[in-house]
From TrEMBL:
Name of the protein: FCRL1 protein
Domain Ig-like: 36-121
Record organism: Loxia curvirostra
Listed SUPFAM superfamilies: Immunoglobulin (SSF48726)
One Pfam short name: Ig_3
Length: 123
């Protein structure tokens, strides 16, 4: 369903009994609502968020519910600017200063949902 599917609907059919004729049901109103993003979660590859110095880490953000279009942004605690957009973030050549808590934010334009933080440790 899309938001533009809201409206009044009825069912029409040919009724063939003693007198054949078209028959129409009562009209019903259907309202399609947006579902805000819910259930935002993170996963990491390698699992657990522990990575060796100089290696790469891939983070994925998933949304259990929400109607689109959805936008994604990635954040590290203590860092102001977003690290990336999209449901996937690849961190390459990690250094000591890349350890910390990472989070994904998902927005539908009206509301925002955040994942729990994921602790990334560069060993």
């Amino acid at each position: 369903l899309q938001l533009n599917h809201s409206g009044r609907y009825c069912c029409k059919g040919w009724v063939s009994n003693v007198v054949s004729r078209w028959s129409e049901s009562k009209r019903v109103t259907v309202t399609v609502h947006r579902v805000p993003p819910l259930g935002v979660s993170l996963s990491a590859q390698p699992p657990g968020g522990q990575v060796a110095l100089g290696d790469s880490l891939v983070l994925r953000c998933t949304v259990a519910m929400g109607t689109g279009p959805l936008s994604f942004s990635w954040h590290r605690e203590g860092s102001g600017a977003p690290l990336g957009t999209g449901p996937r973030l690849e961190l390459r050549h990690l250094g000591d200063n890349d350890s910390g808590q990472y989070r994904c934010r998902v927005s539908d334009g009206d509301s925002v949902a955040k994942s729990d933080p994921l602790n990334v440790t560069v060993l």
